Amino acid sequence: MLNPVRVPTYDALVEAAFRVLNKNPAASLAEIAIAAGVGRATFHRHFSGREDLIRVLAFQAVDELQEVADEAARGAWSYTDALHKILIAIVPLGERQWFLTQDAAQNVPEIQAALQKQNAEFRTVLEQAQKEGLFPATCPLEWVMQSYDLLIYGAWLMVRDGHATPSQAANLAWKTFTTGIKKAKL
Amino acid sequence: MLNPVRVPTYDALVEAAFRVLNKNPAASLAEIAIAAGVGRATFHRHFSGREDLIRVLAFQAVDELQEVADEAARGAWSYTDALHKILIAIVPLGERQWFLTQDAAQNVPEIQAALQKQNAEFRTVLEQAQKEGLFPATCPLEWVMQSYDLLIYGAWLMVRDGHATPSQAANLAWKTFTTGIKKAKL
DNA sequence: TTAACATGAGACAATTATGTCTCGTTTAAG
DNA sequence: CTTAAACGAGACATAATTGTCTCATGTTAA
């Protein structure tokens, strides 16, 4: 990518790319440029091509998520509370988190490594939360991670579709995650 | 599409398409053909092109899901039990269910209509289950549907990645859905 | 064995996506 | 006002995907 000096256009492209690629991962670069309200040539003034774009999106997603999660976990008084605060903080970034689970992002080698690292960290947090009684030791960690991530994505969809505010959606997701749908309410 | 007389090749193409497009929605038709172990020309002997393929996949997904869900609900003694039995039955078809939520399938007009119909049916079942106490009246139906669908997809991923058997994964998903991760175990 | 049929491989053209360039216009800083 | 940088529009060339066709091969049923 080029130097992102011209913020507005560059950011518009990045935002449009997240949005369009989330809706349709097969979207053409022209569609992304149009969605950003810029010309096709301008796209190539910022990104050398699809691969470059994907890399930028992936790195930005990793950074944003890491920062937000770190900040959220800072004030937590337990591992379970950290998971709660992280969930609340990440719901608005559900698009980013989802993008990283897609094939396009997974094929960026450095991203694979970064995700594996974040994954390992998250796993240790989960292990501590398990000792705190958040879930039984017989529940596979993979399932805990899977359902945690998917419920965050679901909460983000609720917000996107106007069915809930970010805080309402996060609350529904956390309640469902911890105590099931029976205790979930707005 | 042509008449699916020659079952093996046709089915191999359909299965490969579900699998490949689930992993990478931007996959080329050539990739799908290769994944099915057939030549590119043979693909075009069964499907006129991408659009045709998507239509066939979508219709098949709708039919399979409808049949499996109907059959599962038949022996249910309550609406809540129906949701439980449907979940168990659909987890192995998670790929199909997921495909229908993607942009490609959503752009098929007849599929939109069929999904809206299934959606309305499902909504009435949920309303009855709510009266049975499965979840509070203040919990948005959209969230119940969203989390139900996503947990099914998550369960399917657990099976796909070898982290659980279909019945284990379905059990984890149902427990998480109803009573939260705290009660989820293998 | 023979005939009908599906297939694989490869050639080919058409279509679509992508990458580059130019030029005239707009914008913002000096 | 002047100038430099970013931009939009559009032309253009290249690359990738897609759709069609032919022919040789293998399979199956009569």
Outline the secondary-structure elements.
Two copies of one chain form a homodimer.
Chain A: H1 7-23, H2 29-35, H3 40-46, H4 50-74, H5 79-90, H6 94-101, H7 103-106, H8 109-131, H9 141-160, H10 166-179
Helix pairs in contact in A: 1-2, 1-6, 4-5, 4-6, 4-8, 5-8, 5-10, 6-9, 9-10
The first copy, chain A, binds a DNA duplex (30 and 30 nucleotides) through residues 5-6, 9, 28-30, 38-42, 44-45, 48-50.
Short description:
Two copies of one chain form a homodimer. Chain A is mainly alpha-helical and about 190 residues long.
Query: Looking at the chains present, what oligomeric state does this protein adopt?
Result: homodimer
> Any idea what the CATH architecture of the largest domain in chain A is?
Orthogonal Bundle
How many individual β-strands of chain A?
0
**Major beta-sheet overview of chain A:** none
CATH topology grouping of the largest domain in chain A: Tetracycline Repressor, domain 2
Mean pLDDT of chain A: 94
> How many angstroms does the end-to-end distance of chain A come to?
43 Å
What coarse outline of chain A follows from CA principal-axis ratios?
Answer: globular
> What is the element string of chain A, with H for helices and E for strands?
HHHHHHHHHH
- Count the helices of chain A. How many? 10
What is the CATH C level class of the largest domain in chain A, in words? Mainly Alpha
Strand fraction of chain A equals under 5%
Tell me the count of domains of chain A.
2
Global Rg of chain A:
18 Å
Give the fraction of residues assigned to helices of chain A: over 70%
Low-confidence stretches of chain A: 1-6
The CATH homologous superfamily of the largest domain in chain A is named: Tetracycline Repressor, domain 2
Structural class of chain A: mainly alpha
Largest interface comes to:
A-B, 42 and 42 residues
